[in-house]
Write a structure and sequence with these properties.
- With 887 residues, this protein is of the alpha+beta class.
- Helices cover 47% and strands 17% of the residues.
- It contains 32 helices and 26 strands.
- The strands form four sheets. Strands 10, 11, 14, 15, 16, 17, 18, 19 and 20 form a nine-stranded mixed beta sheet that branches. Strands 8-26-25-24-9-21-23-22 form an eight-stranded mixed beta sheet, with helices on both faces. Strands 1, 2, 3, 4, 5, 6 and 7 form a seven-stranded antiparallel beta sheet that branches.
- A hairpin with a 2-residue loop joins strand 1 and strand 2.
- 50% of the residues are buried.
């Protein structure tokens, strides 16, 4: 028994590359006796607990206060203070509701941002079986330390990173950590020093699951030093990038702030210079600022995104962060996992080679008679089970490859649950590369299944429709190679009727030779239904799709070619990514569309390389290994069915059906969200421009102010109070998915829409002043003059809302019936203003009154002019709009 209490001199070695005996010696432990209690206590005090470290988090108050520091929010806070000082409590209430709603949404989003690491904690095994002082003990997994000998059995959660010392049929599910689609056969043999974690067959890692077999291993890493801990560190290190919409909103807020402050200061100074009373100009400037500030923008943004969330949920995409709704519409590259997203995550037999012919699926009960010997072999040579409900498979138990073979037999009309007499079962061993059973079928019959080269080496004949014939080894090897080149996992089967006197001993395997070859089986995880068309749709939308997977390069390339993922399906492996510097990798990602056998660090580098080109990157994933990339991406998309809590917490969106097709549908909704945000913003900017221009023009012209401060606030209520929000309910325009993605540098309002907003603002302002001057020339009372000017703006802006329904289509094509909410909002706004024109208390408050009937005809002319200028600009600028020539 070892009695040392010293700390091993170097615990950060490449343990996977060293013989197991050397590892035990270096860590000063014993395979049979383990550590002493004293040695374990000393090391535990030195290395700490086997747990992932918690990290400091911001307080809830810090998160809440952070929601009030964006430029647009600061403008709204200032507006709320001003409206309160002016006694406009209704405006204050509206602005306050917007501020609170925005803060709540932001708080909820940020409060859960670090929960991905907490989800990692749930993957830690609560306890472990160890050998200490020569006795087998069950201890809390956090008490494990370097050098502990751990016993693993089927179903165990691996409690730390272990070097395998002994292994019996050990297969470990590492899919959550490495992306490997099937359980990995582990052994005690050293591997190359540079081997990636997925290829370290002599190691098992914390958080993985023992799928079958048993083993002993020595603890080589605990806590943050494990592969799982490394992933946790990477997740913490990643800052979730601001979404394109958030970046655009910030830029727009600065522009709006400068414009509002500039306009109000100019109006105030000009008014004083031209002799207007100080108090009147101050109130006018303040009211102008409140009227022009688009306080409806945050609520309209929120409504548009919330509607997008609801529509995406109907397409199996649950959005966990509101700004992510629009981000998906801005996506230029999708980095998709393979297993379970592009593929069905269910191994399936798609090809059989038997009787010198290739037979391709799907296979049914009408299968060729030549397949019967092969189907018989796989029916018996298996440890898997299927649970059926009538003719439907409801549960698969066992290795995915074996359940796929049983499912094939079932599809071919064979009763897979038929009682059978098993005389001997010899399980699969990595050294043998095959397994076999001996069944009683009118005498002992051996059925064997395994690696083709091992099976063929034991065969001398092959089954055919006319009886057994000599083995055509070259033809079978050529068939196997052809299937492997198509990315299939190939297994072979064989059988042999034994002599009645053959000794049958479970513990003394038969060295079976002279077998009869029965078939080659080609298996793969097939593409999900509809994925090929979805990828085509996404590519037509200008979005590039790249595959980033932990699976093998050959498998990934074959699936990529089948999916028509790209014109060039060159594969870059994790080893090759490791060898490249950032500049070289940045160049590679411009043309490589398949990345295979990659680690979490490789995924991070690939995402960063894509983002270095200005791409908006969406990443899909389901495993722990995907967590860092999901968080670093512009939008992380986790799987809802097969995904881990770690992946879901690190993501912005969850696919409830794990289907890439849902991403293609969600991209459409994301583009609708941005389109509607753009429409709302364009509408508010053009109406704000009209108000500013009208005020400045009347001040410069010495015409007297056409609107009282109260009227300016009223204008804000009836034009921007409901119609802007109604625009957020617009549905998708035709061919929205056929447009290329927006440039990340493109603002919410494009150069073309800035032009149109100014032109429309000029037309609305001119129309309002035309009515004001008309009433003046008719010697109408001042209240009627102001009533005509204000009404021209109210009606003109209500008309302009229909121009804003589409940024490129004619208002006549968009029609009036497509958005019933907008129609209702327009009717309500006009009705409210009609009451204000005739209701005495409101007339006195706003300083307006009903004007002569001739004014209504002129207002009708203003509306036609507003439509005409917008239609003309759409027609002139349509080619550039379609080319997205924007700033």
């Amino acid at each position: 028994m070892t009695t040392t209490r010293t700390i091993p001199p170097n615990v950060h070695q490449s343990w996977h590359a060293q013989p197991s005996t050397a590892v035990v010696a270096a860590l000063e432990s014993s395979l049979d006796l383990g550590l002493t209690a004293d040695a374990a206590a000393t090391r535990l005090a030195h290395f700490g607990h086997n747990a992932l470290d918690e990290h400091a988090q911001r307080s809830r108050w810090e998160i809440l206060l952070a929601q009030f520091i964006s430029p647009l929010i600061l403008i709204l806070i200032a507006a709320a203070i001003i409206t309160t000082a002016l006694g406009k409590i209704s405006d204050t209430i509206v602005i306050s509701v917007i501020l609170v709603l925005n803060a709540v949404i932001g708080y909820v989003q940020e409060h859960r941002a670090d929960r991905s690491v907490h989800a990692l904690m749930q993957l830690a095994a609560p306890s472990a079986t160890v050998i200490r002082d020569g006795r087998t003990q069950r201890i809390a997994a956090k008490q494990l330390t370097i050098g502990d000998i751990v016993i693993l059995e089927s179903g165990d959660l691996v409690p730390a990173d272990l070097r395998v010392l002994t292994a019996t049929q050990l297969r470990v599910d590492e899919s959550l950590l490495t992306g490997e689609s099937v359980p990995v056969q582990k052994n005690t043999n050293p591997v190359g020093d540079a081997a990636l974690p997925a290829d370290r067959l002599s190691m098992v890692f914390k958080g993985s699951t023992v799928a079958a077999g048993r083993a002993r291993g020595i603890v080589t890493a605990i806590g943050a030093d494990t592969q799982l801990g490394d992933i946790a560190t990477q997740i913490r290190a990643q800052d979730r990038p601001k979404t394109p919409l958030q970046q655009r909103m910030n830029r727009l807020a600065y522009v709006i702030t400068a414009a509002v402050l500039g306009a109000t200061v100019v109006a105030f100074v000009l008014g004083l210079w031209l002799g207007n009373p100080l108090e009147e100009m101050f109130l006018t400037a303040v009211a102008l600022a409140v009227a022009v500030i688009p306080e409806g923008l945050p609520i309209a943004f929120t409504v548009a995104m919330a509607l997008g969330v609801r529509r995406m949920a109907a397409h199996n995409a649950v959005v966990r962060s509101l700004p992510a709704v629009e981000t998906l519409g801005s996506t230029t590259v999708i980095g998709s996992d393979k297993t379970g997203t592009l593929t069905a995550n269910q191994m399936t037999v798609v090809e059989i080679y038997a009787d010198s012919q290739h037979h391709h699926g799907p296979f049914t009960s009408t299968h060729p008679q030549a397949l019967t010997p092969a189907l018989t072999s796989i029916l018996y040579a298996t440890e898997a089970k299927l649970t059926l409900d009538g003719d439907t498979i409801v549960e698969r138990q066992g290795d995915p490859t074996e359940t796929a073979l049983l499912a094939l037999a079932h599809d071919c009309g064979i009763d897979v649950n038929l009682p059978r007499t098993l005389l001997v079962t010899v399980p699969f061993e990595s050294d043998r590369q095959y397994m076999y059973v001996i069944v009683d079928d009118d005498g002992p019959v051996l059925h064997l299944k395994g690696a083709p080269e091992r099976v063929l080496a034991r065969c001398t004949t092959q089954a055919s429709g006319t009886g057994d014939k000599p083995l055509d080894h070259d033809a079978l090897v050529a068939a196997q190679d052809a299937m492997a080149r198509r990315g299939l996992r190939v297994l072979a089967s064989a059988s042999l009727r034994l002599d009645e006197n053959t000794p049958l001993d479970q513990d003394a395997p038969i060295d079976a030779t002279n077998l009869t070859f029965t078939g080659l089986f080609g298996l793969k995880d097939p593409p999900r239904q509809g994925v090929i068309q979805a990828i085509a749709d996404v590519r037509a939308a200008g979005v590039r799709v790249v595959m980033i997977t932990g699976d093998h390069a050959t498998t990934a390339q074959a699936i990529a070619e089948e999916l028509l993922l790209a014109d060039n399906t060159t594969v870059l492996t994790g080893d090759e990514v490791e060898q490249r510097d950032d500049a070289t990798l940045a160049n590679d990602v411009t043309h490589v569309s398949v990345f295979a056998r990659v680690t979490p660090k490789h995924k991070l580098r690939i995402v960063a390389a894509l983002q270095s080109h200005g791409h908006v990157v969406a990443v899909t994933g389901d495993g722990v290994n995907d967590g860092p990339a999901l968080k670093a991406a512009n939008i992380g998309i986790a799987m809802g069915q097969s995904g881990t809590d770690v992946a879901r917490e690190a993501s912005d969106m969850v696919l409830t059906d794990d289907n890439f097709v849902s991403i293609a549908r969600a991209i459409t909704e994301g583009r609708v969200v941005f389109a509607n945000v753009r429409k709302v913003t364009y509408f508010l900017l053009s109406t704000g421009a009209a108000t500013i221009l009208a005020i400045l023009a009347t001040i410069l012209g010495g015409l007297g102010l056409p609107y009282t401060p109260a009227a300016l606030l009223w204008l804000n209520v009836v034009t921007n109070g409901v119609q802007d929000v109604a625009l957020a309910f617009e549905t998708a325009e035709p061919d929205i998915l056929n447009e290329p993605p927006r440039s990340p540098s493109e603002g919410i309002v494009s150069r073309i829409l800035w032009e149109r907003a100014i032109l429309t603002g000029v037309m609305l302002a001119a129309g309002s002043l035309w009515l004001y001057l008309w009433a003046q020339q008719a010697d109408a009372p001042l209240a009627q003059q102001r009533g005509a000017a204000l009404t021209a703006l109210v009606v003109g802006m209500a008309t302009h809302a229909y121009n804003a329904r589409s940024t490129s289509r004619s208002v006549f094509k968009a029609g009036l019936r497509g958005n019933r909410l907008l129609l209702s909002a327009s009717i309500i706004a006009l009705g409210m203003h009609g009451i204000a024109l005739t209701f005495g208390p409101l007339q006195n408050l706003l300083g307006i009154s009903l004007f002569a009937a001739g004014g209504w005809l002129r207002i009708g002319g203003v509306c036609l002019a507003v439509i005409a200028i917008s239609e003309l600009h759409k027609w002139v600028r349509r080619p550039k709009t379609q080319a997205r020539n924007v700033t």
